[in-house]
Amino acid sequence: MRKIFVLDTNVLLHDPGAIYAFDEHEVIIPAVVLEEIDSKKRNADEIGRNARTVSRVLDQLREKGHLHSGVALHNGGSLKVELNHRSFLKVQEMFGEISNDNRILAVALNYHMEEADKEKPAQVVLVSKDVLVRIKADVLGLNTQDYLSDRTAGLNELYTGNLKLKVHPSIIDEFYSYRFLSVKPLQLSFPLNPHEFVILKDEMGSQKSALLKVNTEATKLEPLYLSNDAVWGICARNAQQRMALELLLNDDIPLVTITGKAGTGKTLLALAAGLLKVEDEHKYKKLLIARPVVPMGKDIGYLPGEKEEKLRPWMQPIYDNLEFLFDTKKSGDIDKILMGLGSIQVEALTYIRGRSIPGQFIIVDEAQNLSRHEVKTIVSRVGEGSKIILMGDPEQIDHPYLDASSNGLTYIVEKFKQEGISGHITLEKGERSKLAQLAADLL
Length: 443
Known about the structure:
Layout: E1 3-7, H1 9-14, E2 26-30, H2 31-40, H3 46-62, E3 71-72, E4 78-82, H4 89-95, H5 100-116, E5 123-127, H6 131-139, E6 143-145, E7 162-167, H7 169-178, E8 181-182, E9 197-202, E10 209-214, E11 220-223, H8 239-248, E12 255-260, H9 266-280, E13 286-291, H10 307-326, H11 333-341, E14 344-348, E15 360-364, H12 372-379, E16 387-392, H13 408-416, E17 422-427, H14 434-442
Parallel strand pairs: 1-2, 1-5, 2-4, 5-6, 7-9, 12-16, 12-17, 13-14, 13-15, 15-16
Antiparallel strand pairs: 3-4, 8-11, 9-10, 10-11
Helix pairs in contact: 4-5, 8-9, 9-10, 12-13
């Protein structure tokens, strides 16, 4: 069935490649969308970059013909910048105000009414990431949907990095005898991923169990290499935290992703591992800790003071954890310690762009507020001999165009889960306090 997709501005500002995401169907860009994109093109953040990208893509397509008449796309579809179908009468009866959102609704509605009179009408669909626009479209009787092409998986389907298997007790005994297990005899109906953790449980109901890790080639299960000794005074309090430390302290895994609710220990574990590797083992030259200033790339010059003073409010959660690890007693002690060490650097992601970062232990906190493009930009900064840790809570997102399934953190987790150079773990149990765990579960 032929379909006509009318795109809202936020779809193109979120993903400039959305023009090509609708296969052989017709894509309509209302003229007011071009005006909104033009108003964003001077922004210094990702929205501004995407606006400029959309402009360049449309300019290239313009070479194929007049956009207001429609041009063919390489995927078999077509694109048209709509100058007609702008009658506002029907929408005005319902919502009154002449806003840009309502103008886009009017284009979709007029197309819908025109197609309804044809013998073989096309289905008209308004695509928007704005929930209220979709609600208004539904009130008008229009087909509407969110832009889903960039989504990886539903929140409950995301890769966790660990699983539990019930097996015959003889298999557990075999592991303890030979210190490894081949994957094939397990006869699993799904593939295991490199560096995935497996907890074996006795299917007969005894207390026998074993904690194993899939090797780099995903061909066998091996024991964890690390004991549960303290790392800078921090001991794993549950199985998932021990898995996280196994990944964080393994120098052969340059990319580690950690997800989990607030209070599960993501930041503290990563900082403890980083301090051990940089200060004690001298494996890396520097510990670089970064957080996105939300919205990422926004100028923070309106805050008083030098760069460090401007960053302090955004970076305070990092300093809180460092104060705990260094066991400081007085306010300001942590600043003196960091100044004396010289090997620990706290930055906003705004200042990472354009850099090459070799030989460093890099921690990116709150990575769920990064888009796919931003994650690609950051990970591609990692130089030879560096290790990068991306962590965050996909359920706590401040970015207006991202959600639990489309943010950069979950995107990189899903894309790299089968790669031998990466490892992932989802922390499940809160260890901050009983109150924090209850708040994370109930609120």
